[in-house]
Amino acid sequence: MAARLTPALDAPIFAALTPLLGRLPPDRFPRYDELNALATPSVASGGGAPIRFVPPAAASREFSAQYEVRIFETGEVQTRPDNRHDLFNALVWLAFPKTKAVLNGHHYEQIKSRLGERLRGTARDVLTLFDEGGVVVASADAELAALLRGFRWKELFWRRRAEVLRSLRFYVFGHAIYEKALEPYKGVTAKVLIVDAAPELLEAPLEQQLTELDARAADYFSGPQALASTRTLSPLPILGIPGWEPANAREEYYDDAAQFRPGRSGEPAARGA
Question: Is 269 a residue whose pLDDT tops 50?
């Protein structure tokens, strides 16, 4: 892994990865040994195997299933060299190890229980949606969380902007969102897990916040209700988050109906325990 990643990783969207990025080479992709040196014993697969980042095996039609099974059984996360998508996946394993382990465990169970079936099933669709495009929102204000669940984007992000900055924290989980954030465009949408949080947590050091939110997200996805429907996770147009896009410092930015769409009637949204 020798190529340069990007010079833009100090943007707010990368906040959850900040402790890790500071320990990686600033001018190139990390080598496997450098990534593996960041994996503490607590970073383990759904089956309890210590996580290690390794070169990928030959691709096959069943690669997705083999990929998750291999992680579960051996802890080996196949990671393509000089590949942004795979590097971000590795960094999320390090930043949110408990949640990633729970998702991997569910994938393994679903794969083993549905051998021979052509369709992946709803549970794996939910897992993939969050794994690729999830955001964990820590909320110390129930009203703001309700606005987010209700798709009331302008009221949330503009009229109550100061309250959002004070009482909500947004941490990207999905590695595909990180990849898109390198060249962001209107319409990038994440899937949100809202976690109720005490105000004190939002002012705690970043590592403490991430440890708590990782545990809470893992707890949520450990419950069967989390995998019941792809609609349990509320969508979020991430470029509307204050500070994540320079253009959203203007009120009219939130009048773009193509980006800030109203929700479907009765749309549910996931909430952490």
Answer: no
